[in-house]
Amino acid sequence: MEKAKSILYVLRIKDFAVHPDETQLVFDTNLNGTSNLWAMDLPDAYPYQLSFLN
């Protein structure tokens, strides 16, 4: 079953929020395989992990 899950793995963004001054984007995604919060300091486009629920 784990092999099937890895084959069917799909990146998704469940929810997101933008800081009022538009300097940060926070989003819930399965970027690392499990649902966690990630952020990006704008205008940079490199995400970093905020929560570690795996």
Could you characterize what this model shows?
- It is a single chain.
- By secondary structure, this protein is mainly beta.
- The chain has one domain.
- Helix content is 11%, strand content 37%.
- The chain is built from 1 helix and 4 strands; from the N terminus they run H-E-E-E-E.
- Strands 1-2-3-4 form a 4-stranded antiparallel beta sheet, with no helix packed on it.
- Strand 1 and strand 2 form a beta hairpin.
- The longest helix is centred in the N-terminal third of the chain and has 6 residues.
- The chain is elongated, with a radius of gyration of 13 Å.
- The model has no long low-confidence stretch (mean pLDDT 84).
End-to-end separation: 19 Å
Q: Describe the global form.
A: elongated
| Class derived from helix and strand content | mainly beta
Average predicted local confidence, pLDDT: 84
Bin the strand percentage: 35-45%
Summed up, the domain count is 1
Largest sheet: 4 strands, antiparallel
For the biggest β-sheet, the strand order reads 1-2-3-4
Percent of residues in helical segments?
10-25%
Poorly predicted runs are none
* SS element count, helices: 1
Give the beta-strand count.
4
Write the H/E string, N to C: HEEEE
Rg to the nearest angstrom?
Answer: 13 Å
